[in-house]
């Protein structure tokens, strides 16, 4: 759905998305990287299970929550993607027990 | 200026006023609810949402019995609201716990429960004193600092925002006139009551004062007394998490939607509802000592709200001698007591007289002459 502008250039960053290798441009937010990678949705909601994707891209709407390096419900649009980052999409509510003991 | 006539005017559209209006409507009465606006100090939007029995009534056995009665009637209220509005208020009654973080705190709680149950006229209800191991059997995720707990099978909780919404949805569906942004300044009586403010006036055959802390100001207009004051409570809410807590605690509970609420502070600061780091830090620290894994959760909201606290902490239910037809209801447990307000208080007001069973709750208890 999203394509990068032809003049976009810069260093490449390697991260993993749900365990699979992915790449982004240095300076991308995690949300921008997910959209550029063609991700249709980044989570399902805890209450209704509805799909959600990055929306406002400026920290307001909280739709883009993902798990980053093991920490759930991070705002992907506010966090620059970094080399080696582990990004996971979320299904429903986070399990606090598993993460706290991880 | 607005002029409106009604049979019963309920002043206050929070949980107390809405539950009474709901009951009055079911009793076949024509009801108008006069409410303040969204800027009101509204305990109904800030409370902890427990339907709570244990620890209540030390100093007034009738209040313990009153709380048990509402707890027992609560499932019927939840079911009626579901039928009428389709809204599930998430009422659950698995029993609840009060956790202690030291042996001395546990001893204090146990002594308090014993004193409560040793009062004359106390109708005993079941509760259990649990040590660390037995507490852990119910709550596997407690930390090593938990010394013990008290478990009471009558305790439960709801989603109080859904309760608030469902009561108002039902009122609307039943044709009750809900009038927001109508602060009441004066109440007078000739052949009927005239309840007036800058917006106009409503005339009613009967009135019910359910205005929370506003009752202190309004009660003297109709020969009543409501010595209540705001008492601040601060609450922390975390992000939604998978269910981990099967029982509500007096300071920590997980909502039906997964968020964890942490609270139960008490402060005397007047009409001031800001949040302070000092209090929320203490609440968070105690919660993490109870459940260490909570430390990994993000906090998404903090807020404070004002309880409606009487001098002795017990509810006030009264009817005016000088202004017959004027009633007053006020308490700090609008959630717990919602079933009683709907099923007991409202039918009595509809019939024109509060039951003698409610005499212990009259504000006349504050008028006992000082001992010489």
Please, could you describe this protein's structure?
The complex is a heterodimer of chains A (102) and B (372). By secondary structure, chain A is an alpha/beta fold. Chain A has a single domain, classed as 2Fe-2S iron-sulphur cluster binding domain, sarcosine oxidase, alpha subunit, N-terminal domain (Ubiquitin-like (UB roll)), CATH 3.10.20. Chain A is built from two helices and eight strands, in the order E-E-H-E-E-E-E-E-E-H. In chain A, strand 5 and strand 6 form a beta hairpin. The termini of chain A are far apart. The longest helix of chain B is centred in the first third of the chain and has 25 residues, at 61-85. Chain B is α+β, with helices and mostly antiparallel strands and 372 residues long. Chain B has three domains: 2-49 and 161-227 and 313-366, FAD/NAD(P)-binding domain; 96-153, no CATH class; 229-310, D-Amino Acid Oxidase, subunit A, domain 2 (D-Amino Acid Oxidase, Chain A, domain 2, 2-Layer Sandwich). In chain B, the strands form four sheets. In chain B, strands 1, 2, 8, 9, 10, 11, 16 and 17 form an eight-stranded mixed sheet that branches. Chain B has a four-stranded antiparallel sheet with strand order 13-14-12-15. In chain B, a hairpin with a 6-residue loop joins strand 16 and strand 17. In chain B, helix 2 (61-85) crosses helix 5 (160-173). In chain B, 28% of the residues lie in helices and 26% in strands. The model of chain B has no long low-confidence stretch (mean pLDDT 95).
In short, what is this structure?
Chain A has 102 residues and is of the alpha/beta class.
